[in-house]
Each structure stands twice: as C-alpha cells, then as structure tokens.
Write a structure and sequence with these properties.
Pfam family, one: BPD_transp_2
CATH topology of the largest domain: Rossmann fold
Largest sheet: 6 strands, mixed
Protein name: Branched-chain amino acid transport system permease protein
Keywords: ATP-binding, Cell membrane, Membrane, Nucleotide-binding, Transmembrane, Transmembrane helix, Transport
Radius of gyration: 29 Å
Number of strands: 10
GO molecular function: ATP binding; ATP hydrolysis activity; branched-chain amino acid transmembrane transporter activity
Distance between the termini: 57 Å
Subcellular location: Cell membrane
Bound molecules: adenosine-5'-triphosphate
CATH class of the largest domain: Alpha Beta
CATH architecture of the largest domain: 3-Layer(aba) Sandwich
Structural class: alpha/beta
Strand content: 5-15%
Number of helices: 24
Length: 601
C-alpha cells in the first residue's frame, strides 16, 4: 500500500513538473529522461547481468541515426522509421553481444569500446550519415494533431515511454530472468549448474541494452531533430557510466536517480565542462571505493554496518522436515560411466573410470587428495568433457552436454567450496533452483507480463515450503555470506533439492561441519534418498561414508581401485595401501564395523 502511494505521488509530481518549469528547464528535463532510459539499459547489462558494455552510447546513436536517415533520406514517417530503428538497435545489440560469448571482464570492455569507436568513426565519415555536420531537419513526430515540436508536450511523450521502460526493467529484474542474470554475474559456473543457459542469457543482456539504447535514440531524434557524431562520443559514454556507477549499477531506480542527478549537474557545470569531467572521475573513484553499490546501496551498507556493531546475526537452523518416502521404482541404472579418461595437459586425472549407479542408491566416492573425485563430478555435471569414454544418464548418452542441459535432465550438485550467490538472499538462491524454465520463455515478458508475475508468485510459494523443510525460516532473507558455514552448507543442499533432481551429486558436504551437523546431514541425505533421488557423495569423513552409503567406489590416482559395500571396501588391501601416508583418516576395520553397526541399529 505504501509502495502504491509512493508511485502515485511520483507520477503526479512528474506530471505536474512542466507547470513549474521555464522553456530551457523543460529541455533539460527532456534530456534527463533520455539519459535515464539509456542508464536503465546500461544498468541491466552491466549492473544486473555483469557484462561490461561500453557500447551503450553507440546503441543510442544507432537509434537516433536510423530515424534521421530513414526520415530524411528514405522519406519514411517518423514512427515507421522509429520501429525500424528499434529493430536495428536490437540487431546491433546482438552483434555487440557476440564477443561476450567468448570473452568477459576487461577484454569485453575493450571490444565493446572498440565497436563504439567504430560507430562514431563511421558516422563521422559516411556520406549517408551527414559526416561531421550530422543530419538536420528530422521531421516533428506526428501525434494526432498534438504539436510535439513543443518541449512541454514532448515531455509527456517521453514520460509515458519512460514509465513503460522503467516498469519493464523492474519486471525483468524482480522476476526469474533478472535473478538468473544476477546469478550469472556473480558466478556463471554455479548458474549454469542450476540450469541457466549462459550464452543465451549474455545475448539477452545485450538485446536489452540495444532496446533501451535504441528507444533513447528515437526520443533524442524526435526531441532535438538533429543528430551529429559528438552526441554519441566517448565523453558521453563516460558520463553515462558515471551516472550508472554513482546511482548504483545493480539497481534500476539507482540508475535513474544517477542519470537525473548527473544530467542536472552537467547543466549547472556547462561553462566548466573540462573541470566537470575531472569532477565526475573523482566522484566515480570515491563511489567505487567507499560505496561500491552506489547511492542505491547506501541504506543496505548502513544496515549491515549497524548489524555488525550490534554483534551480527545469531541465526539458528530449524529442524529438517523429512520428505515423504516413496517405494523404490523398478530397478534401473541412473548413471553409467564407461571408460572415462580425463587429461589436463600431461596429467591423467581420470584413467578409464567405469562405474554404474543404480536408482535409489547412496553411492560414496572416496580416495586420497587429488585422486580425481571432483574431476569425476565435473565430468558427470558437464563442466568437463572427457577425452575418452561416455557418460550415460537414464540410459541416454549425455557426454559433452553443457551443465545447463544436464541440470535440465535432473542432475543437481553442490560444490566442495560452496558456490552460493553471495549478493542474492537465501530465498533468491532457492528460487533460482526452483525455476525450471528455459531462456526462450522470456518472450512472455513483453507479451504476457501477468503470466510472469503469476509464475513468480508460484515459485515464491514453493520457495516458502522449501525454506520450512530445510529449517531456513530464520535466515530466508539474509545474504549467505553473513551466515555461519554450517547454515551455508544446508542452503546449498536445499538449493540443489529445489531443482527436483533425479541424481544429486554432493561434493564433501560434511566439510567444516561439527558433529551434530554431520549427524543431521546424514538424516537429510537418507530422507532425500528415500524420496526417490539417487545420491552420489564425495566425502573424506569415513564415519559418515561408512554409515550412510549403500556402496562405495574408491579412486586412487584417477583409477577405480575398489568398489563394493562399505565394510568390504574398508578392508580391501589396495584401499589400505592407497591411504597409507594420506593425511585424511583412512577407513579402518573398526570405523567400518562401528558405522555399519550404527547404520543397522
Ligand atoms: N582444471 C584443472 N586443470 C589442471 N589440473 C586439474 C584441474 N582439475 C583438477 N586437476 C588435477 O587433477 C587431479 C585430480 O583433482 P581432483 O580435484 O579431481 O581431486 P580430488 O580427488 O577431488 O581431490 P580432493 O580430495 O583434494 O578434493 C589433481 O592432480 C588436480 O590437480
């Protein structure tokens, strides 16, 4: 209710604004709105999706120049030209996005900057773009007899377009697509393991950037009715970057605030533009150092500072609510590894490894450090493609498939060094696991936005159930990094189970847990198995392996040296020999007997 009231007040204030402004001031407001739309586009690619994009000003130019060329040279109407301009900017977005499929971070920055420079170069030299003089005489956009040559009336067109653009950006960021984009930004490997199609997501980010850049360019062409290369140069790109960084790149509202604030500052400092550039640079450096999340992140920063002062969170895990047990389905092998060999340059990490995991089993994978256990998981979950051999899942060969394809086929995993998305809340981490849609589903965002909202509500309901089942109610809205290690491990397990997997891979889930937490972990894994999920677990805690696993496979130097029931494997001479000299506790006859006794009690 409070939010609706705030939106209503902002809308009324924006609507009434021109009544209090003079002719020049309304022009400044018109330009500020255009920068705000541009900043939203840049915020979506750089802040939300983490794709360095220094070509946003070129998307802006593509939109403006396409309208200018099509209206003055080809004689098209303003709005027809605008539709084509939007399409051209999106195509340009796809082209700029292609390098992002192969490179990231500063390399991507250099490439996008190069493309932006190439654009300004082209418009400065091309006859059709009016060379350095630009193109004037762009027609006034017709609007049912309303004279849009007036800056006052044009303001209202801009305001409506801005409101729609802002609402769409908020819909994107606060729903499954935005969450996946943020997850990709934080850790693309973990996002891929949860089913996010990384290449398509990167493309989507650049398409959104092109869309917003093109939209801003069209409005610019309609407002100024003149385009020239200097409006789309690197100095303006830098100003745009400053707007987004100062406002808070990951927050759409922050980007808008940054854009409006710096547009006003720019006007105030028009006579000292050289010093102004220096000033923006200084402020950007200060913001990056002291408030990395910009103005929008300040309230959160202050809150977490206060929390630290008052002793931090003493969050507690609640009890785990077991899954309903289901009777085992007909015997079927869930996973078959056939003669898999994985080499890293000269090192053979896996050497003709073969094993079969039947449905409903808890399989332990043990072995000394460096014996190839995690490499095996990386092969099963698609992170590595083996040089030789095959991975067969539910009877179908899946060798070489990408992590997201395997995630969609029901393979979920946890990581040895926890890979939670630190900037997302616990609830959002689980929502990512629950969302099983493919990226192409995003066509619904523009066409059926209410279905997106309905889907999000359903996901949140299911996340609520999962949070209760895993005893995470107290920490649901915290950021994982603020929580004790044991709770983080529980969250990662819950996130993997959110994917409703058929095969769950747990990589050292007991590492760093205390005795009581290990006992709880064993109960949880048994309940997961009883609910019909096949589990493979890599563990150094031999007590846990012996009591929990139905069958254990032992790796040593990339080879399977033993495979069988825990009690048999523990006393196998090759296993005892492999563990000699290893710092981890080797299985012994006593630990095996004690564990088996406990398990059968
Ligand atoms: N990406 C990689 N590049 C090069 N070598 C690698 C890579 N991944 C693993 N290795 C090497 O392969 C071997 C097996 O590593 P792996 O991580 O699978 O062992 P592990 O049994 O899981 O060990 P630990 O118990 O310590 O986790 C090691 O010698 C490791 O250094």
């Amino acid at each position: 209710m409070k939010r609706v009231a705030l939106i209503a007040i902002a809308a009324v204030a924006a609507w009434l604004l021109p009544y209090g402004l003079g002719g020049y001031a309304i022009h400044v407001a018109d330009v500020a709105i255009i920068f705000a739309i541009l900043a939203i586009g840049l915020g979506l690619t750089m802040g939300v999706a983490g794709q360095i994009n220094l070509a946003q000003v070129a998307f802006f130019g593509v939109g403006a120049y396409t309208v200018a060329i099509l209206t003055t040279e080809a004689g098209l109407g303003f709005w027809t030209a605008s539709l084509l301009a939007l399409a051209t900017a999106v195509v340009f977005g796809v082209l700029v996005g292609i390098p992002a499929l192969r490179m990231q971070s500063h390399y991507l920055g250099i490439v996008t900057l190069g493309l932006a420079l190439a654009f300004t170069n082209w418009v400065t030299n091309a006859h059709i773009a009016g060379r350095a003089e630009g193109i004037s005489d762009i027609p006034v956009p017709p609007m049912f007899g309303v004279d849009l040559s007036s800056g006052y009336l044009f303001y209202y067109v801009e305001l409506i377009v801005f409101a729609i653009a802002l609402a769409f950006a908020l819909l994107v960021t606060r729903s499954p697509l935005g969450r996946r984009l943020r997850a990709m930004r934080d850790d693309d490997l973990a996002a891929g393991a949860l089913g996010a199609e990384i290449p398509l997501l990167r493309m989507t980010a650049f398409v959104l950037s092109g869309l917003y850049g093109g939209l801003a360019g069209i409005l610019y062409a309609g407002l100024i009715r003149f385009v020239a290369p200097e409006s789309f140069n690197i100095a303006n790109m830098f100003l745009l970057l400053a707007m987004v960084i100062i406002g808070g790149r990951a927050s759409i509202l922050g980007c808008v605030v940054g854009a409006v604030a710096l547009s006003l500052v720019r006007e105030a400092l028009l006579d000292a533009s050289g010093y102004a550039q220096l000033g923006y640079g200084l402020v950007v450096v200060l913001v990056v150092v002291f408030a990395p999340k910009g103005l929008a992140g300040l309230p959160g920063q202050i809150r977490s500072l206060l929390r630290r002062r008052t002793g931090g969170s003493r969050a507690q895990l609640g009890p785990f609510l077991p899954y309903d047990a289901v009777p085992p389905a007909g015997e079927e092998d869930v996973l078959e590894i056939r003669g898999v060999t994985m080499r890293f340059k000269g090192l053979v990490a896996l050497d003709e490894v073969s094993l079969t995991v039947p449905a409903g089993q808890i399989r332990g994978i043990v072995g000394p450090n460096g014996s190839g256990k995690t490499t095996l998981f990386n092969v099963i979950s698609g992170f590595y493609t083996p040089g030789q051999g095959a991975v067969v899942l539910h009877g179908r060969e899946v060798t070489g498939m990408a992590p997201y394809q395997l995630a969609q086929r029901g393979v979920a995993r946890t990581f040895q060094n926890l890979r939670l998305f630190e900037d997302l809340s616990v609830r959002e981490n689980l929502l990512l696991g629950l969302d099983r849609t493919r990226t192409w589903w995003i066509w619904r965002y523009p066409s059926l936005p209410w279905k997106v909202l309905g889907y999000e509500r359903a996901l949140r309901r299911r996340a609520g159930e999962l949070i209760e089942r895993f005893g995470l109610v107290e920490v649901a809205d915290a950021e994982p990094r603020s929580l004790p290690y044991g709770i983080q491990r529980r969250i990662e397990l819950a996130r993997a189970m959110a994917m409703s997997p058929g095969l769950l891979l747990l990589d050292e889930p007991a590492a760093g847990l205390n005795g009581e937490e290990v006992r709880q972990l064993a109960d949880i894994v048994r309940s997961i198995r009883d609910s019909g999920v096949t589990v493979i677990i890599i563990e150094h805690n031999m007590g846990l392996v012996m009591s929990l696993c139905d069958q254990v496979t032992v790796l040593s130097s990339g080879k399977v040296i033993a495979d069988g029931p825990p009690a048999e494997v523990a006393v196998h001479p090759d296993v005892v020999a492999a563990y000699l000299g290893d710092s981890m506790a080797a299985p012994t006859e006593e630990t095996a007997e004690a564990a088996v006794e406990e398990a059968t009690r």
